[in-house]
Design a protein that fits this description.
The complex is a heterodimer of chains A (250) and B (224).
Chain A (H helix, E strand, L loop, with lengths): L10 H26 L1 H11 L1 H20 L2 H27 L5 H71 L12 E7 L5 E8 L4 H13 L17 E6 L4
Antiparallel strand pairs in A: 1-2, 1-3
Chain B lengths: L8 H7 L2 H44 L3 H10 L5 H19 L5 H24 L2 H30 L7 H57 L1
Helix pairs in contact in B: 2-4, 2-6, 2-7, 3-4, 4-5, 4-7, 5-7, 6-7
The chains are: A mainly alpha (250), B mainly alpha (224).
Chain lengths: 250, 224
């Protein structure tokens, strides 16, 4: 039999259909998983919380400009007053020359006045700009400082959270689980720590209802000494009093 | 690692390790090929069934075998497998008949052999690519699993550097790795379904051809 007899007539349609199936599948996967990625985007908002402050600062910078447009006006009269004084000596000169050319007086007096007016018009805006720029720079610096503070606070918060989690994990490792503890048992403890990670006291603030579990957690808290603290001693204040919640689940 | 992991599909593939990406690429290729064969086979089997039905109908309605032979040879490409079996058998039968001194049973034996040879060839053509589908169906889950295991191994190795292990550290790596398994299954499931379906269709066609051969032999025997 010749090869032509077995020639597949549907190669192209089959290929197109195969591609279409894959296209549909990947579209489904893409949109399906990006939909699931929305919750993490909600967590992005937490981090942006610090940034809106930055945005609000530039926003604050704008209204001051409008306010500053008015205050500089009092500055203008002062500068007007100063230039006016130099006008007087010319007058004196003019008085000296009065005898020779009396008609020239009014013209010369008007001219300086006009000149000064033009000077007034030119100079003040420049100074206004300088002032607003300086204030802008100040506010930008403030915003930066605030941002740096926020970042530092965030870093500290991260370290605190991490060590808190480590403390809880270490205690949890040491719990000898008594039998028949219901999953929803919740024991809450106020733990007072000493620098170095040893436990000064552990007070049960909210019993779980299962005494065996409460005492097991309490024993575990003391057994887990020294608790892991951050190497930065300055952060110890955040760990002096800890409110910890234990639950058999998790 | 950030808390805000972008778990979108493309991001997962981009972040996977090179080997996992290779596995994913291989699986994508295999999946494309298997779907191509699935559609190819779908059209081929459908065509074969239709041609066989048409030919059987014209065979039983047409008492003149010579006329049927001529029309079938004229439409050689469109005659279908059954038509080709008929042509091979009838041509052999006529040739053997022309030879003098041939035993009747020997003529029938030769005709049968000729038909069987064509039948084998037709079956071979119908079954082609089916083995590929079977292989894809059985192997690609393992390939995907290999990619996943490798990805998870890497995820855990990265984890050893972190003191406090949280779910956020492991989750992205595992999600990346599991994409490979998903792709393996995506390639395998349709391939298995298609293999079973087409294997069944081809078996039915083959039994149909065989019964046709028997019936045609009887018709020839009656005429000889």
């Amino acid at each position: 039999m010749s090869a032509a007899v077995y020639d597949e007539p549907y190669k192209l349609p089959a290929g197109a259909l195969a591609l279409a199936v894959h296209g549909a599948f990947f579209a489904l996967l893409y949109f399906g998983i990006s939909w699931q990625a929305l919750p993490p985007q909600g967590m992005v908002v937490d981090i942006w919380d610090s940034l809106p402050e930055m945005k609000s600062d530039p926003a604050k910078v704008v209204p001051p400009e409008a306010e500053q447009a008015e205050p500089p006006k009092p500055v203008e009269p002062q500068k007007l007053a100063e230039p006016v004084q130099p006008i007087v000596p010319p007058k004196a000169d003019i008085e000296l020359t009065k005898k020779k050319k009396p008609k020239a007086k009014p013209v010369e007096i008007r001219k300086p006045a006009e000149l000064k007016k033009s000077v007034e018009l030119k100079n003040p805006p420049v100074e206004q700009k300088k002032i607003t720029e300086a204030e802008k720079a100040q506010q930008a610096a403030q915003a930066e400082q605030e941002r740096v503070h926020a970042e530092q606070a965030a870093a500290i918060g991260r370290v605190v959270d991490e060590h808190r989690a480590r403390i809880v994990a270490k205690i949890r490792r040491n719990i000898v689980m008594p039998p028949d503890v219901p999953d929803n048992a919740r024991a809450e403890f106020d733990v007072t720590l000493l620098p170095g990670g040893s436990v000064l006291s552990a007070k049960l603030t909210k019993p779980s209802g299962k005494e065996a579990y409460d005492s097991a957690v309490e024993r575990a808290i003391f057994k887990a000494q020294p608790l892991p603290l951050p190497s930065d001693v300055a952060l110890f204040n955040k760990f002096r009093e800890l409110h910890l919640i234990f639950s058999p689940r998790e | 690692m950030n808390v805000t992991q972008d778990l979108s599909f493309i991001h997962l593939i981009e972040n996977a390790s090179v080997l996992v990406q290779l596995v994913m690429g291989l699986l994508l290729l295999v999946s494309l090929m298997s779907w191509w064969y699935i559609f190819l086979k779908m059209f081929a089997v459908r065509l074969a069934v239709k041609q066989s039905e048409d030919f059987e109908e014209s065979f039983w309605n047409n008492s003149d075998l010579i006329k049927l032979y001529q029309s079938t040879t004229a439409a050689r490409g469109d005659a279908g497998s059954m038509g080709r079996i008929f042509v091979a058998g009838f041509a052999e039968f006529v040739k053997l008949k022309k030879k003098q001194g041939m035993d009747n049973s020997a003529v029938m034996e030769g005709t049968r052999r000729a038909m069987r040879a064509t039948y084998q060839r037709e079956m071979d053509n119908l079954e082609s690519h089916l083995s590929f589908l079977a292989t894809v169906g059985s192997v690609s889950p393992y390939v995907g699993l290999f990619g996943t295991v490798w990805g998870i191994m890497n995820a855990f190795r990265g984890l050893s550097n972190v003191g406090q292990a949280t779910l956020a550290h492991v989750a992205p790596g595992i999600a990346e790795a599991l994409v490979a398994t998903a792709m393996g299954l995506f390639a395998a499931i349709p391939a298995v379904v298609a293999y079973n379906r087409y294997a069944h269709d081809v078996t039915r066609l083959s039994s149909r051809f065989e019964s046709f051969m028997e019936e045609f032999s009887n018709v020839l025997q009656r005429q000889s």
